[in-house]
## 1
Amino acid sequence: MGRAFSLKADSKCGECNQPIHEGDIYTIIYEDDNSGKIKCLQCDKCEVDDEIAYYRKTGEISSHLSLEAAMANYHYTEGGPNSMDSLRADVRRFFIKYKKELVEIAAGTDRIHDVIRAFEEKHWLPYLKKYWNDTDQRGHETKVGDIKLMLWGCAGRVLITAERGNSDITMIFSDYESQVTANGGQQGIHGSQKAAQEILQELVDAKKIKFKHNKSVTMAGL
Ligand SMILES: [Zn+2]
């Protein structure tokens, strides 16, 4: 590494041209990984987290971003006024900077959760749980229209992954006989939340879902 970087008095953001002052948050963009040559500086507004940038562009998220949003939303809404204080500085900054997106994603997760509950009440609790508990086979699959469904379970938990095109959503349920009220949820997601919600709604609307054993199905959604 070369000498320590010092900010010049007339520094500007290489993208939006706003002045960058001492004490501002900014990022140094290098020409390449090795030379240490600085290409430009980037102001905090122009520097966007990769996952957030991808979400803004495509509406698509990963399980990771979905979890981050759920955690952030807890701190915004239920954690109390000083809830963010205990967070690591970079996490706190992420939650503050991308609040709009994270609130939006958390709301999408709530809507997905409602459809998962509907699926659980219509399909899982009344008959799919019995199908699962009656079989010794682990991996199962089926199709509903153009949606591919995979089911796999372990240690009292069952995962059902629904997949169409580039989107997939994985639900998690309990297989305990004694559990009769819906308490499942989202285990994983890739793609847009809107697509996931549509996939799940089509499953809810399906009359009956019949799985078949398929040994190539191993760990659904993982
Ligand atoms: Zn800028």
## 2
Amino acid sequence: MTWISIGKEEEVSLAGMKRFTVEDMDIAVYHLKKGWYASVDLCTHQDCSLVEGQIENEEIVCLCHGGAFDIASGKATRMPCVSPLETFPIRVVDGWIEVDFI
Ligand code: FES
């Protein structure tokens, strides 16, 4: 695994999310009550940014057409989204958010 620090823990509030751009890739980081999660910040329907949407019941709901994904697994849970999101391992170490996306 190749862990890369992408930002500080305090940059993403509990129940919140934020986009980080690392090596030309936009990564959405989600801070849920049950833990931290990361995915590409790109809806698989028509490429909208997911962090512009909202979190509902541990799902990310896309702002563009209302499709949704399970944040933990990346599985599409609501039409028009069908294809899953690419997700990445994530951890917080000494206040730093680290993602393995290589
Ligand atoms: S682009 Fe996300 S639901 Fe259409």
